[in-house]
Specification:
- With 606 residues, the chain is of the alpha/beta class.
- Helix content is 64%, strand content 9%.
- It contains 21 helices and ten strands.
- The chain has a six-stranded mixed sheet with strand order 6-7-8-3-9-10, with helices on both faces. A four-stranded antiparallel sheet has the order 2-1-4-5, covered by helices on one side.
- Strand 4 and strand 5 form a beta hairpin.
- The chain is elongated.
- The chain starts with a helix and ends in a 5-residue tail after the last helix.
Length: 606
């Protein structure tokens, strides 16, 4: 029973590995013209070697006949040499054309696969990016997907080219002696078997080593990325990360070299068998020539036919084993594409309310996968239109999780998040997010122009100067942008030539401008003034209040200068709402909020 189950699994794996339909469809869909040209060139390349064999026989026999006559007439010899020259030129031209077509096809398909990876990466749930298993899948897909589809088609092309040439040569050899054909197959089989076996071993090895590969890349990133440059130098950790990188790369290198060494020894044995078979066939052909059964030209033709037939048969087997290997590795790409988002619109989604938004969290609880302690427990929060709601709490109290639920990056495990009474799960998540603008605590520094850094808040809109300036003015970024060499056209960051780096506070003002540019109905600011000075902070909230109008707003901050002006405040601790009320009400309660406020205003450590 167990053996039958193992055989069934093996057949399933083999069927999956040899399933080239998906790869062929991917290549054909993105490069039909190049693929058609490739097939046409392959047919020509497959026929030309057989023609060259026949012409070589004619040359040798014509030379032998001319030598026997001794009359010095070489016109027919020159003719066949000219034909051979033409064939050689055609073979060279077809090879160069094939390389050019394959290169064009490869570039187009690689870019198309990158597009697929990018689109899939932006559509999967945020939760995948908090799961190490996802990064293993993504790493394997990024490594293998850009090249493997083209390699599969290349393997098909190689096999087809070899098969076309092989058919004619096998017919030729069997016409001479069927034993020569049998020897040909026996000679090519060991090398094919070696490639097949080691393709599977390489696949298993790479699958097992993906964690080490990612670890080595991570240490490389630490040592080469600007985000880590200051600490690497300050704490002098460069040598430490170099050692860690070397250790992982050494393990990877040792494993790959061992595998390559065993494969080389096995291939040497296989090639030795092929070489012995080649010369055994040569001996058989030579004996027939001496016996008068073959002309000298026939001997040359059959020997070269066997030699080329062996080459083509090995090429055919190599192409097929490459197909097998590439499909094995391409399965990682299919695994990545098989990832399904769980935050999906219902069959008939409701549109988000078009008027003012009243947001409510009703008895919301949420736990992250693999986390024992719930991040949020029985949360009840209401945010009215035109109201600024403050969220306060220690690190790990659930504030960032609350933002993710409001954006519908996750759905609650129990309870509901509602907009004007409609559960967010009844809406299309992309449509809902279009109504929400968030400045995250870990906002992004885009190495683009200052104007584009703001415009990215609503990239569906026109990149108009007026709206961008309004958002920059509201956030306080306008004066600093005017001081840049090219104003809003100035490239920021160090990635590109003439880029200008900003301070942390200046980047924060741009992130705020990006949030305000979106003109959303729900605005969430997570630590929006952590890098601003007190004066800039006070001016920002004065402008923000005037701009807010009927929008709903949530402000999350450790700084009470930002929080105490909120209309209503919720205090989180351990994933629960432990207090709520206005600033004055919470001070009168003289509990957790009041203690935090006193410590901060008195300059005591928090």
């Amino acid at each position: 029973m167990a053996n039958n189950h193992q055989k069934k699994n093996l057949l399933i794996k083999l069927k999956t590995a040899l399933n080239i339909k998906g790869a062929w469809a991917l290549v054909w869909q993105n490069a039909p013209g190049w693929t058609t040209a490739n097939v046409a060139v392959v047919i020509v390349e497959g026929i030309l070697p057989l023609c060259a064999l026949l012409v070589m026989k004619q040359i040798v026999d014509t030379v032998a006949e001319a030598a026997r006559r001794g009359d010095g007439e070489i016109g027919s010899v020159i003719f066949w040499i000219a034909v051979a020259f033409g064939l050689a030129a055609a073979m060279l031209g077809s090879r160069l054309l094939s390389e050019w077509v394959s290169e064009g096809q490869s570039m187009i398909v690689s870019d198309a696969v990158a597009d697929v990876i990018h689109r899939k990466s932006t559509l999967v749930d945020l939760g995948y990016y908090e799961d190490p298993a996802f990064f293993n899948t993504l790493q394997r897909a990024q490594q293998e997907a850009p090249n493997r589809p083209v390699q599969i088609v290349g393997g098909l092309v190689e096999s087809a080219r070899s098969l076309i040439s092989l058919v004619g040569i096998v017919v030729l050899l069997f016409a001479f002696d069927w034993w020569v054909g049998v020897i040909l197959v026996i000679a090519a089989f060991p090398a094919a078997w070696v490639r097949l076996v080691y393709s599977r071993k390489l696949f298993r090895f790479e699958a097992e080593q993906v964690e080490r590969e990612r670890g080595a890349w991570y240490y490389h990133w630490i040592m080469t990325d600007a985000a880590h440059a200051k600490e690497v130098r300050l704490f002098d950790t460069g040598d430490l990360f170099i050692r860690k990188f070397r250790f992982l790369r050494s393990q990877l290198r040792t494993g790959r070299l061992s595998l390559a060494g065993h494969r080389a020894i096995s291939e040497l044995a296989a090639q030795a068998i092929a070489t012995m078979a080649l010369f055994a066939a040569f001996g058989l052909i030579a004996a027939q020539t001496v016996a008068g059964a073959l002309t000298l030209g026939g001997m040359v033709m059959y020997f070269q036919g066997f030699q080329r037939g062996l080459h083509f048969l090995q090429g055919f087997f190599k192409g097929m084993t490459n197909l097998y290997e590439s499909n094995l590795f391409l399965s990682h790409f299919y695994d990545f594409l098989a990832l399904k988002p769980t935050i999906l619109p219902p069959p008939e989604p409701l549109k988000p309310p078009s008027e003012k938004l009243r947001i409510e969290l009703r008895d919301v609880s949420f736990s992250y996968p693999r986390m024992k302690r719930p991040a949020l427990r029985h949360i009840d929060i209401a945010i009215a239109p035109g109201q600024v709601v403050g969220i306060v709490g220690k690190n790990g109290s659930g504030k960032s999780t609350l933002v993710k639920l409001l954006c519908r990056f996750y759905d609650p495990c129990s309870g509901s998040v509602r907009a004007e009474g409609i559960d967010l799960r009844e809406m299309d998540p992309r449509q809902w997010r279009g109504r929400v603008a968030v400045m995250f605590q870990d906002f992004v520094h885009y190495n683009l122009s200052a104007g584009e850094n703001i415009w990215l808040g609503d990239p569906e809109s026109d990149l108009t100067e007026e709206r961008i300036v309004e958002a920059a003015t509201l956030s306080g970024a306008e004066p600093l942008i005017q001081e840049l060499p090219a104003g809003y056209e100035t490239i920021l960051g160090y990635w590109f030539n003439e880029g200008r780096q900003l301070s942390k506070g200046e980047w924060q003002k741009l992130a705020l401008a990006r949030t305000f540019f979106k003109q959303a109905d729900l605005v969430i600011l997570d630590e929006p003034t952590s890098s601003l000075d007190p004066l800039a902070e006070a001016e920002l909230f004065t402008r923000f209040r005037r701009w807010l109008g009927s929008r709903s707003a949530v402000v999350i901050s450790h700084r009470f200068a930002a929080i105490h002006k909120a209309d209503y405040i919720y205090v989180l601790d351990g994933g629960r709402v432990v207090e709520h009320g206005t600033h004055r009400q919470l001070l009168k309660q003289d509990r957790f909020y009041a203690e935090l406020f006193r410590r901060q205003t008195e300059g005591e450590p928090r």
